[in-house]
Amino acid sequence: MSKTNRQYLKLVALFSVFAAPMAVAWGMVEWRIGIPDSRTAHGTLEPGIPQLRDWPLAEVPQGLEGDDWVLAFDCTEGCEAIADRWWRVHRALGREAPRVTRLRVGGDVASLPGEHVVDWRADSVPAWQQPGHVWLLDPQGRVLLAYASTTDPADVLDDINHVLRRNPDSP
User: What is the spatial distance between Cα 78 and Cα 129, in angstroms, rounded to a whole number?
Assistant: First the structure.
């Protein structure tokens, strides 16, 4: 092999090092190979739900402002089982549990440890409120995800863990 052919081969190899990833990426996009088609969140986005401070609550509990994420749930029907379910999810967070606050709306059973209890104002229960629904709120009080009453708690736990991993605690 002559010196010119070796130099030509080196140039082709150099071009292929930079062109091959572009060709692979184009093929992945064109033929949808290796691109996930499913969602990662189990909840639904609900842009029509207002921020927590605008909810028609009888009183806004202290301590919900700040750096904590809020797991709010409606407890107007079957409250004992619902409150226990979300208490167990909160416990399953392990060392990340202090970053999440539970807010129970409604219900007449005793509150579980670490739970804030409020009621809807009698004159204005919102249209988006459904018995047993759960909402995950960011530290500013915006609803991030909403869950139906039939949602598996493991799915909610998975979403909370995902959100907490993506939003590390400030040092």
Answer: 15
